[in-house]
Design brief:
alpha+beta, 14 helices
Length: about 400
């Protein structure tokens, strides 16, 4: 077996340029797949983390009858004692923060311009408000007792032609299904860097949102942040009670998960195409080597080398090329993922085309995916070895006398 390895290594060195180009083909193919998987991993988890940070939290508690699609404000669909649920949640050791929120749909108008918006009634002092405080780019943040102020995004202000300090008209649905309209002053403008969220979301202080929507002291949901998101199931179990629906961040990000599942079919097809190209390159290299070494194969066979040994020698050559290519490919791919993880891929306005539930930032960052890298490496090696079987079989089945007559 050792002699076969020596022969395989020696044979690869005969045509260094061809062997090097084949190795580079394997490396570039695997490197491309590693970078692609790292970008997908980063965009998915980045979107989930953004969604948790700006709207869903790690856990939500709602009334069982609450209809998120309709943004229901009927009293029977709202939590009638949200503060008691907040206190219960905050008593749990895994909970970092909990706050009630009121959600409504509305129309924001300024002059001749108007746009449909999601209205979030928030506690300005709660931790869930931190991303919007940190993203404040003009004016000031809301105060809990503000009765006439609204916080809108920089993007929304630009589309309406308004700025901090200007007045806007807000029309919202209410608990008795009769719309109400009022004039608000823009206290400040925020920018979270998530266009799909910012361009349709405005904020009112919780007390004002409850009064404006005629929800009383009720809330649409309790939004909970955790120290460790992997504790979400345990916290959800502790808060479950008759009449309540408790959702974890996994439940709240189903749209992202479904989008990923749909796109993975296309990505897997791309992976197969790249690996198929690599396989063709490997097979072509070894087949050319067989034709060039026909007489040598005949001599080896005449000296007693069995067909299975010749086959093994060519498979070893492919294995050597594959392993070296995989090592180089992992290095190149890791450098690419590192670049994406630090510098990111700027989407710009493309990010605003995504659904608000899929919270892509203006810049998407890559993320290392060790499991994916291992799977791609194994797949590359397997494809490389399979591609070598035909040339190896072709060499192994040669009759010594025919091989010696080849030249």
């Amino acid at each position: 077996m050792f002699r076969l390895w020596k022969l395989a290594i020696r044979d690869l060195g005969r045509n260094k340029r061809r062997s090097a180009l084949t190795l580079v083909a394997v490396a570039l193919g695997l490197g491309l797949l590693v970078v692609t998987s790292g970008l997908i991993e980063g965009s998915v988890w980045g979107s989930i983390e953004n969604n948790i940070r700006v709207q869903s939290g790690h856990v939500q508690v709602r009334e069982e009858s609450y209809d998120e699609d309709k943004v229901s404000l009927k009293w029977e669909d709202l939590l009638d004692d949200p503060q008691a649920l907040v206190a219960q949640a905050q008593a749990l050791p895994d909970v970092r923060a909990a706050t009630p929120m009121v959600w409504a749909s509305g129309i924001l108008a300024a002059g001749e311009e108007s746009v449909g918006v999601r209205v979030f009634g928030i506690d300005p002092l709660a931790e869930m408000s931190t991303p919007f405080q940190e993203g404040l780019v003009a004016g000031q943040f809301l105060a809990p007792d503000d009765r006439s102020g609204v916080l809108i995004s920089r993007r929304l202000a630009e589309s309406l032609g308004v700025s901090a300090g200007d007045d806007v008209s807000l029309l919202v649905n209410t608990s008795d299904e009769q719309p109400d309209e009022a004039v608000f002053t823009i206290r400040g403008l925020y920018d979270t860097g998530i266009p799909s969220h910012d361009q349709i979301t405005i904020f009112l202080p919780l007390a004002k949102a409850q009064a404006f929507t005629r929800a009383g002291e009720r809330a649409s949901a309790i939004v909970i942040l955790l120290h460790d998101q992997e504790k979400a199931d345990a916290v959800a179990s502790a808060l479950r009670a008759p009449g309540l629906e408790v959702l974890t961040w996994r439940d709240l990000n189903q749209m992202i998960m479904q989008a990923v599942e749909m796109s993975m079919g296309i990505m897997n097809l791309m992976y197969l195409v790249v690996l198929a190209v690599v396989a063709v390159v490997i097979a072509n290299t070894l087949l050319m080597s067989v034709f060039e070494r026909t007489r040598e194969m005949g001599i080896l066979a005449a000296l007693g080398m069995k067909g299975r040994q010749i086959l093994a020698m060519f498979v070893m050559e492919a294995g050597i090329l594959g392993m070296l290519g995989i090592i180089l490919g992992l290095l190149l791919g890791s450098l690419g993922v590192y670049y994406l993880a630090t510098e990111g891929w700027h989407l710009g306005e493309m990010a605003s085309m995504a659904s608000a539930e899929i919270a892509y930032g203006e810049t998407v960052y890559g993320r290392f995916a060790p499991a994916e890298m291992a799977q791609l490496s194994i797949a590359s090696l397997v494809i490389t070895l399979l591609a070598a079987l035909y040339p190896a079989w072709f060499a192994a089945r040669m009759e010594p006398i025919d091989a010696l007559r080849a030249l």
